[in-house]
Each structure stands twice: as C-alpha cells, then as structure tokens.
Amino acid sequence: MTETREVDLLIAGQGAAAFAAGLYAARYQMDVAIAAEQFGGETAIGGMIENYPGTGDIDGFELMMKFKEQVDALEVPTLNSNVVGAKKDGERFRVELQDGTIVNALSVILAVGRERRKLNLPNEEEWTGNGVSYCSTCDAPLYRNKQAAGVVGGGNAAVEGAILLAKYAETVYLIYRGEKLFRPEPILLKVLEKTENVKVLLETEVSELVGSDEAGLTGVKLNRPFEGNDELILDGLFIEAGADPRLEIPNQLGLELNPDTNEVHVDRMQKTNVPGIYAAGDLTDGTDLKQTITAASQGAISALSAYTYVMEHPSKLGEEVEPVAASAD
Ligand SMILES: Cc1cc2nc3c(=O)[nH]c(=O)nc-3n(C[C@H](O)[C@H](O)[C@H](O)COP(=O)(O)OP(=O)(O)OC[C@H]3O[C@@H](n4cnc5c(N)ncnc54)[C@H](O)[C@@H]3O)c2cc1C
C-alpha cells in the first residue's frame, strides 16, 4: 500500500546542504523529513577534506556521518528513497518518492547536487570501479606503483587529479579536447608544469575504451595519435570533465535556471521563483564556490526561508507551537 506523509518541509538530498537544512529546520521545530537514496553526497566520496573549519583533516564520509548524527539526534526521519516527481497540489506540494511514498509538503528544499559528466562511450558504465573512475581524489591511491593512468578534462579537478595521480602512477596522461587547459588555478598550473611524469595531450579526445569484462579497462583509443600511437595502455582512466546540476525535479516544478550556468537560480535567501520551493548547495547558482562549507551554509539559510514561508501558511507547526525566533542561534 502506498504510504502518505504530511510534513511542513521535505528536504531532497542527503549531502551537506540537505543535512544542514534538516538541522536548522528541526531546531525551528518544523515537521521535517529528509529523502534520498544515497547517504553523504559528494563530500562522502571526496576522500580527505582538509578545508572544513573546526574539524581538522577529516575523511569526507566521516564528516557526513557527523552531519547525519546531529540531525538524527533531533529525530528528523530520513526516507531512503529518491524524489522522482514533484508538483503543486493546492496549498501543498505533492512529492513522490521512488519507493512509492507520497509526501505532501508545505515547502520543499531541493539539495540534490550535480551529476558527474560522462564520456558516454560503450563499456563506460560497466567498467566504472574496474578501471574507470570519476573521482581521482578518492581512487588515486589505488594506482600506487602502476604503470599509467589517464585523466580526461582540462579544468581544476582534472589538473588536480593528474597532479595527485602522478604521486602514485609512473606516467599520467592528461587528455583534453581544448587548445589549452580550461582556466585552471595559476598555482595548479605551476605545480603541473613541474610534475615531470604528467604528459598533457591537448586537442585530443578518447574515442574508445579498450578492455574486457574480466580485466576492466586496459587502455583507450585516441582520436589523434600521441607520440605515434593512437592507443594508450592504461591501468585506469579518471573522467574529470565537470558536472551538471540535477534538473529533473527543478524542471518538473518550473524552476527558473541561470541562463549562463544552467543551475537553479536562487536569491540570497535560497528562494527560487516558486514560493515554497528553496534550493541549496551545488545545484544552485548561489555561489561559484562549490564546497561542503558553502553547501552547508546555503542549507541553513534555506531552512530559515522555508520556516518563514510555513509560518505564513496553515500547518501543523503553526497550530501546535509558538513560533521560535527566526535567528541563527
Ligand atoms: C572528488 C571530490 C572532492 C571534493 N573535495 C572537497 C573538499 O576537499 N572540500 C570541500 O569543501 N568540498 C569538496 N568537494 C565538493 C563538495 O563535495 C560539494 O561541494 C558538496 O558535496 C555539495 O553538497 P550538496 O549537498 O550540494 O550536494 P551533494 O553532496 O552532491 O549531495 C546531493 C545529494 O542529493 C542526492 N540526490 C540525487 N538525486 C536525488 C533525488 N532525485 N532525490 C533525492 N536526493 C537526490 C544524492 O544522493 C546526495 O545525497 C569535493 C567534491 C568532489 C566530487
């Protein structure tokens, strides 16, 4: 039987933005639920986090566990299922989860992050985790003492990945289709230039993944030869070609996008163009600094906006408790 829940606020996501929103919403005594199939978001798979204030160097998974524990302690329910549909239904939003649960929510915070860009080549999906990776920070140590690894991309993440991999693999090929690398931070470029075992292949694309189902990826074919070869033998290939905001649910709700970045457009209070719908974290154009700390900050702000909205609309919260001061203490 389909389960139906009524809440003041549904938060889609289980990353930094979502948990921070959950924490603040629970402290505003909202009737709130969090929904997402996968725990932790990108922070949890990002390896060591060295720039989150107050924690020192910490594994991203562990940091997200701390976020979740704080929310669990306030008894915010986590529904382990993704949002697959959302639409306005009278005063409320009717949100459908993958497992069939229907959540009728007065307000919604979307904190669903971004999808890593793929090359869309045959076998890419099958060999992910078996030679193909989208996270050099997470998987680079697996290539200790290996012969060769490739990195596809030309931005900061790709350059950072190549430098990191060069500490493990004997040779690293940085493969980029553009004429020059895509505006990497100058300091990264300097380090790259000094890293002798990284070979940069510009105006070059991976045209085919080579390997087998047993061995996984063993190499790649290139659209133009490098040092006379149109094939590179590789132990692993890292695809660091950027990420796109997850727009399925925002599109269903008719949310305005930033025309330049294709991210969900929000104002300084994380409001979208649809009253009652807020967005936070990497999904949005709230900041160019896509980091755990900014995602958490935007999550907190979006909870305040949702709280203010819900207080202005009929809800369980309005009936049962005195409004708490909407300040950040
Ligand atoms: C390899 C790597 C290393 C990084 N290193 C650092 C670092 O050192 N320091 C730092 O500050 N930042 C780092 N970042 C960036 C940081 O991880 C992100 O900025 C941050 O995770 C963004 O948080 P978010 O909550 O917006 O999105 P995410 O963390 O991406 O979380 C999105 C959540 O939404 C869920 N979701 C997806 N679709 C749906 C749906 N339909 N319904 C419900 N839920 C859904 C996902 O499962 C996930 O739980 C790194 C990122 C990567 C990829």
Give me the Rg, rounded.
22 Å
Q: Alpha-carbon distance between the termini?
A: 41 Å
The helix/strand class is alpha/beta
Fraction of helical residues: 25-40%
The coarse silhouette is elongated
The count of DSSP E runs of length 2 or more, i.e. the number of strands, is: 19
* H/I helix tally: 9
Topology:
Elements: E1 4-12, H1 16-27, E2 32-35, H2 41-45, E3 48-49, E4 58-59, H3 60-73, E5 78-79, E6 83-89, E7 92-97, E8 102-110, E9 114-116, E10 132-133, H4 136-139, E11 148-152, H5 156-165, E12 171-175, H6 186-194, E13 198-201, E14 206-212, E15 216-226, E16 229-233, E17 236-239, E18 243-245, H7 248-252, E19 277-279, H8 292-311, H9 316-320
Parallel strand pairs: 1-2, 1-8, 2-5, 8-19, 10-17, 11-12, 11-17, 12-13
Antiparallel strand pairs: 3-4, 6-7, 7-8, 9-18, 14-15, 15-16
Helix pairs in contact: 1-3, 1-8, 5-6
The chain binds flavin-adenine dinucleotide.
Residues 12-18, 35-36, 38, 41-43, 46, 49, 51-52, 82-83, 111-113, 135, 137-138, 246, 249, 281-282, 290-293, 295 line the site of flavin-adenine dinucleotide.
